[in-house]
Amino acid sequence: MPLLIPLSYRGYTESVIHLLSAIWILEGRLQSLHSELECTKQREGKLSEDNRLLGEKVSTLEKECAGLGLKLKAAENRLEQELRAHEETERRSLVSKEEANLEVVKGLMADGKLGYALVCFDLELMPEMVNISRVIF
Fold first, then answer.
1. 84 is in which domain, residue-wise?
2. What is the value of pTM for the model shown?
3. Which end of the chain, N or C, is surrounded by fewer C-beta atoms within 10 Å?
4. Phi/psi-derived region of residue 112, left when phi > 0, alpha when psi is between -120 and 50, beta in every other case
5. Is 124 part of a structural domain of the chain?
6. Three-state DSSP class for 121?
C-alpha cells in the first residue's frame, strides 16, 4: 500500500529529500577532498625528501669544489715553481756558455790569433750567436 503523506507535510518532505541529497553530494565532495589531501601530503613528503637529498648533494658538491680549488691552487703553485726553476737553470746554462765563449775569445786574443772579435752577449735577442763557431772575426 502506498504511503500517503498529508499535503501539509509534502513541502517538508521535499525539503528533507533536498537536504539528504545535498548531504550525499557534500559527503562525496568531502571524501574526494580527503583523497586529494592524502595525495597532496604524499607529494609534499616526496618533494621534501627530494629537497633534502638535493641539499645534501649541493653540500657535497660545494665541499668537492672547495677541495678541487685547493688542489688547483697547489698545482698552479707547483707549476709556477717549476717554471721559475727551469728559467733559472736555463739562465745559468746560457751564462755558462757565454762565459765559456768569452774565455775562448780571450784565449785566442792572448795567443795573437785573433785581431778583433764581435761576440753577441745579448742572449735573449740572438741566442744562436753564443756558439763558438759563430764568433765573427
1. 7-97
2. 0.48
3. N
4. left
5. no
6. coil
